Amino acid sequence: MVDIEHKIQNVVIRATYRDTEFDLGILSGVLREARYDPSVFPGIAYSPPDSEASFLIFSTGKVNCVGAKSVEGAREAIRDLTDEIRESGVEALPEPEVEVENIVASLDFGREFDVERIARSFRNVQYEPDVFPGLVFKLDDPKATVLLFPEGKGVCVGVKSEEDVGRAAERVTEVVE
Question: Global pTM?
């Protein structure tokens, strides 16, 4: 097994508070530094000052959490948000159902790649150096997209677990060697 260095840059989680409707006008007044302008966007944009995570909160009871550097960090941010909403007076707020939507990770393969050769050799890649300097490598198992750069760096997107980040990086290495 090849050891490829990776670092989680962003975790996107969707939380759903079942059978809940938020009054965004009231909630935006309670959450410190929340931004709500329904003529511009139909939800609250909220960035707690003591958190790396930010939220989009919708009246339907759905919340998107972005910016955390780990799945556990994102889950903790959702727990903190839930506590803050409960403390604001929203009664009977259920525990949210939480689902990882996307993980973005930077990769360091520790070697260079001939991306032009790879682009000529494989069908599941896109490489247009006039538009973007990286090669776009689409994987089926795990389901992921890896942006691969000649200097040996990369970005993995579309996975739902940190384990899949490692699997995607290994898969790219296996395929191109």
Answer: 0.89
